[in-house]
Design a protein that fits this description.
Layout (H helix, E strand, L loop, with lengths): L2 E10 L3 H11 L4 E7 L4 E8 L2 E8 L5 H9 L2 E9 L2 H10 L10 E2 L5 E5 L9 E5 L4
Parallel strand pairs: 1-4, 5-8
Antiparallel strand pairs: 1-5, 2-3, 3-4, 6-7, 7-8
């Protein structure tokens, strides 16, 4: 069981159309792709920053977890995703260490990755995601 890298940092915001020009013009990054993840009620945009990606997250419905995050916290860092070669092993290790799992089994996220989240109350306030596989 091993974390291989920080895979991406998720940033919640109200509008991809407003944010993408900042990342492209002010930071000089290129948007790799825009994707809607219907089950999560979110539209995402990915930018490569070296080996780590930045994932912008725009809610597509009021019931979206991102919409709820924005209502409570406003725009900002939503989660840190750690890439692993053994997502089930990581979940078991975290659970065995007393960490509450938001997902006991991975779900399919953006880019076809398998993802699962740990409860931020047990991760010092940082919503932590494990991810494996997929496009990026």
């Amino acid at each position: 069981i091993m974390i291989q890298k920080v895979d991406h940092i998720g940033i919640a915001l109200h509008s991809l159309d407003e944010a993408i020009p900042f990342y492209e013009k002010a930071l000089g990054l290129t948007c790799d792709r825009i994707e809607e993840v219907e089950p999560q009620k979110v539209k995402t945009a990915f930018f490569a920053a070296g080996e780590v990606h930045i994932e912008l997250l725009e809610p597509t419905a009021e019931a979206s977890p991102i919409a709820k995050f924005l209502a409570k916290n406003g725009p900002g860092i939503h989660h840190v995703a750690l890439g692993t070669d053994d997502i089930l092993g990581q979940l078991a290790q975290a659970s065995d260490a007393g960490v509450r799992l938001i997902h006991e089994e991975p779900i399919v996220g953006a880019g076809g990755k398998h993802v699962a989240f740990l409860h931020p109350k047990d991760t010092f306030g940082v919503l932590t995601e494990f991810c494996s596989g997929g496009d990026h």
